[in-house]
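Format notes (please read before filing issues)

Several people have asked whether sequences and structure tokens are stored in separate files. They are not. Every record keeps both together, in the order shown below: the sequence lines, then the token lines. Line labels are part of the format and must not be stripped during preprocessing.
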Amino acid sequence: MEGKTRNALLLGAGFLMGTIGVKALTSEHAKRVYVQGVAAGLQAKSYYEDVVEQAKAEVDDIVAEASYLSSAKADAGAKAGAAAEPVAESAAEVEAGEKASA
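Then the structure lines:
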């Protein structure tokens, strides 16, 4: 009998706590707290989205500048290579001329 009474009391206490919990969660004061919490969360989300957008813009600027520098170096290398080829050809011609005159 003692076990049944204890179980019945626990069941009643659980039901009572559940009822009180539902009343507390659906009260006007609780709803104001929920609204304030959600509003704070939305503000934080907006702030972090702005931070992420700024970071993306900075990364895009860095990538664009790096691409520009890379293409500028490639163009400079191609111009240097084009200028070096005639010099190499003229050096080969000089050697050929020296061999022919010898």
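For reference, the curators noted about this record: The two ends are 128 Å apart (CA to CA). The chain is about 95% helix and 0% strand.
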